[in-house]
Design a protein that fits this description.
rod-shaped, about 400 residues, about 50% strand, mainly beta, about 15% helix, seven-stranded mixed β-sheet, five-stranded mixed β-sheet, 7 helices
Amino acid sequence: MKDWMTKHDVFTKLLSVVAAVILWSYFMGIQNPTRTLEYRDISVQLTGVDELYNSYSLTLVSGADATVDVRVSGASNRLATLTASQIKVKADLTDTITAPGTYEIPYHVILPESGMTCVRRSPETITVVVDRMESKTVPVTVRYSDDAPEGYVFEEASLSRDAVEITGPETEMDRVSAAVVTVDTKDMRQTTTDNYSYHLVDKDGETVDANNISRNVTSITVTVPVKRVKTVPLEVTFSPEDAADDVTATISPKEVEIIGDPQTVESIDSIALGAINVNTAENGDTYEFDINVPTSVSLNDGQPTTATVTISISDAATRQFTITDISLDDTNRDETAEVTLETESLEVTLSGSRRLLDSIDAGDIRAVAEIASLDLSDGQHTIGATIISPDGSTVIGTYSVTVRISRTS
């Protein structure tokens, strides 16, 4: 090891390094030569900004974030500890700006110690733009991010306020025409209420840079009404139920489109128009019903409000009955006249469902003939008769009876 150190002259080299350090320290400590260093992106501190607004209603549009580069010359030992944060750059706007426009403003570089000198600056001035302050009210509009899912519709949104007041530079304010709230409506299937921020747009709908614009509110409450749309069939019921198999209803329209609360609409599979009494219905009868929907649901725009139902009786038949229940109704009676009914029975034909006709007896049918004996002369007369039959049956044909009028002198 000793031979190796002797061979490579290690001690001599170490001694040279130590001597060089001592000489450099001596030179720097005694001689302390002058150096020049460059410091970049030093922020400019602006004064007089508040006075612009208070005295001239002006605001700074650009220039507040100005930076400059400076070169500083001074003693080496001083610059060795100088940092960019110790260098202050200030520009005074007081009494320089009184109207809107673009200005080149000089600035001052303040160094922390004497003996230091700013030998170069870039740029030589900073550019500031000022504009007059203005306030105005703009309307609020709502944009939906997506169309409603299939089977749903978005109705017009309601807002906690329909306008906002903004304040800012005149040139920027002139561009603003509205405040737009964008609501995320992707997969929205129920009415939603939430607070939303908004952005300012120009007349073409393009976003306006609003960094220099203040607002009286930062968010707006928006309610998006969501309605479910669904097509459901119309239905009728029959009574008695055991006769319903023989009756068919043709409904026009067959179905309608309803709209309303999503949960309520989803639970509706059909709309009941009403009930039809099969015992009183005849083949081909028509009925008109109002189309009534549940609460919180309505018929969609353009949908009919009434429906027509036509009845078809599948086992319609006819049957003849011999009836003997015949009576006279003398509405203008002649007390001196003797009225005799000479017809003892009538052959009456009824139509209706086979089931109904099979349940009818001749005793269920009667005939009534209206006469006015005071107006009739003595002798035999043929009088029309009204046949009264059970509900649901139809009398086929016309009927008459024979009466005789006689008076004693």
